[in-house]
Amino acid sequence: MTTLFAGLAWQARQRFGIKAEYLHVDTTSFSVSGEYASCEEDDPVPIAITYGYSRDHRQDLKQWMLALATTHDADVPVFLRPLDGNSSDKEHLSAAVKAVMKQLPEAQEQQIVVFDSGGYSEANMKSYNEAKIRCITRVPETSLAAKTALEQEYEQWYPLSDGSGVAHTMDLPQGKERWIIVRPPARLLAQRSRWRKRPRKRKRSGRKSSGISRCAPFRAKRMPKAHGNRQ
Questions:
Q1: Which of 6, 59, 228, 230 allows an S-S link to 103, with CB 3.0 to 4.6 Å?
Q2: Based on the domain organization, do 11 and 107 belong to the same domain?
Q3: Does residue 22 contact residue 71 with C-beta atoms inside 8 Å?
Q4: DSSP 3-state assignment of 153?
């Protein structure tokens, strides 16, 4: 299925002239109902429908997962792989990134893969550097290097031309990475301050909750980002 899908996607890109310079890779989960009993030993089992981390917040249901890669230009899917319901992003995002790069035919454009922090780890970034895969991702704040970067002074970092943050080339065990720390604009900080005051006002007014769920306020934070290409 994955090979057939990749072939059809390549044909579509060629016919409509869609570029694949930037590729966005991610995983998602699909909750299902039913028992889904285990198959017999001789029956092929392409994926395991089982319990895992549910993005639908339905821990009571079994699920299966899907790794998908799309082009930034026109959002055309170029890679698809069904996964077990308890698959790990750190393992399968990395595998999807490498599979995407292998399945794409030789082209004039230089591909850059974009994925979230679930695919970032020392082992994954080292493998990307060795395979010369250029990537853009977000470094998890749980990373010791990220915590250190956020706490240190920025004399060795240089400002971005648009004033949105600072950048620095990090020399890490997995290789060199270009990190960017984004600073939220003053207007976002002011808006966050107003949002924080709203719950206190509702509490003092003594109004009862309407029972309608509300989205949590956006928290503008400095987020480290890493560029995974080799320097």
A1: 6
A2: yes
A3: yes
A4: coil
Within a domain: 125: no
What is the DSSP pairing of strand 112-114 with strand 22-32? parallel
Report how far residue 98's alpha carbon sits from residue 123's, in angstroms, rounded to the nearest whole number. Answer: 13
Domain encompassing residue 97 = 1-115
What's the mean pLDDT in 2-31? 84
Name the 3-class secondary structure at 35: coil
120 vs 134: CA distance, rounded Å:
13
Instruction: Provide the whole-model pTM.
Output: 0.69
Same domain, 92 and 179: no
- Shared domain check, 92 and 1: yes
Using an 8 Å Cβ cutoff, are 112 and 21 in contact? Answer: yes
Pairing of strands 112-114, 134-138: parallel
Q: How many whole angstroms separate alpha carbon 72 and alpha carbon 52?
A: 29
13 and 109 part of one domain:
yes
Show the tokens assigned to 48.
Answer: 């395991």
Q: Do residue 150 and residue 62 come from a single domain?
A: no
Domain boundary among 115, 147, 167: 115
Q: Which residue has the tokens 């695919």?
A: 119
Condensed to tens digits (0 to 9), the pLDDT of residues 144-173 reads: 989 888 887 677 888 888 888 889 999 999
Helices (H) and strands (E) in the chain, counts: 5, 9
- Contacts (Cβ under 8 Å, ≥6 apart) of 27: 65, 66, 67, 68, 83, 87, 89, 92, 93, 96, 118
Domain tally, the chain? 2
Query: What is d(CA 165, CA 183) in angstroms, rounded to the nearest whole number?
Result: 5
